[in-house]
Amino acid sequence: xxxxxxxxxxxxxxxxxxxxxxxxxxxxxxxxxxxxxxxxxxxxxxxxxxxxxxxxxxxxxxxxxxxxxxxxxxxxxxxxxxxxxxxxxxxxxxxxxxxxxxxxxxxxxxxxxxxxxxxxxxxxxxxxxxxxxxxxxxxxxxxxxxxxxxxxxxxxxxxxxxxxxxxxxxxxxxxxxxxxxxxxxxxxxxxxxxxxxxxxxxxxxxxxxxxxxxxxxxxxxxxxxxxxxxxx
Length: 232
Prior knowledge:
Blueprint: E1 4-8, E2 12-17, H1 34-41, E3 65-71, H2 74-85, E4 90-98, E5 105-114, E6 122-125, E7 136-147, E8 151-158, H3 165-173, E9 199-209, E10 212-217, H4 222-231
Parallel strand pairs: 3-9
Antiparallel strand pairs: 1-2, 2-3, 4-8, 4-9, 5-6, 5-7, 7-8, 9-10
């Protein structure tokens, strides 16, 4: 599998992850994952972190595309993971939401935890709900970029990094991500030709020193650009 290296220095690299592939194996997964392909190209990553994720700093869902950071040594891995955990890495996603999002800008602030009814899913919990103390705070900001007849293209900034956060939060608002088979509602429309969830990690900004920032961008994949063109 070919993937583009968007940025590389002596400490870390950023790749453009395609949709449809898992980042690293968990459980009984037998298919090849991103880390398998990375180890073929960068075998020295076996010395970073521990199996199965090695130098991978964070994860993207299988059907999400875009920027994925990979550390080249343990010191940088620890630094970048801490930056993610504390929310100091600025990240933006592009998402096509089902429905016409009313507010031009907005903030979603809830708790997120595993759904008691379905272990594959995460669920929004409100702060005063029973059992809320066991859940983790999640904050997502969004901005409307363009409205279509049945959809809205939005730019999303997750301020925290919870599992499935963007997908769960948009579904909670009533505007699930187009093509998302896990969090969509019954009888929801799907844009013609969309074979995956329309969610793309498009931008990262990392402050590596007092006076230096690294900005990394990933263009929307051609298949998602085509979906938007067909909506016009």
